[in-house]
Amino acid sequence: MPEPYWPKRRGSFRLSDAGAGAGYASIRCTCCKRQRYYAIADLLTAFGDMECDDVVRVTGLRCRNCDGNGALELKVGGPPRDMADVAIQRKIDRIFYVRKIVWKDKRGV
Ligand SMILES: [Zn+2]
Fold first, then answer.
1. How far away, in angstroms, is 11 Cα from ligand 1 center?
2. pTM here?
3. What is the dihedral sign for C-alpha 67, 71, 76, 81?
4. CA-to-CA separations, 69 to 33, 35, 37, in angstroms, rounded
5. Whole-number Å distance between alpha carbons of 43 and 39
6. DSSP H helical segments within 1-109, as ranges?
7. What's the gap in Å between 62 CA and the centre of ligand 1?
8. 5, 32, 51, 91: most buried by Cβ count inside 10 Å?
């Protein structure tokens, strides 16, 4: 389940708005130029309906290729037609839910 998220501005462009027009968004590393295409439905599942600009800033996404040295940028839209065969799509494989226990002290047994 995604973390609770509240947009900072009214009328902001969210993932649900992007999903209505385009099915994909690309996230590109500015350092190593690696680019991956994500289905917007997957981004909605993972992060909830957040502003498109906040996806790379808030969610803690990092480039796996250069260990997070580069900044990421998100663009809405799929690959160009001539790149459709070689573009790499990243899909959700599994989602793990972590169960944390918080202990509380109480006097008397
Ligand atoms: Zn990189």
1. 31
2. 0.76
3. negative
4. 12, 15, 20
5. 7
6. 15-21, 40-47, 55-58
7. 8
8. 51
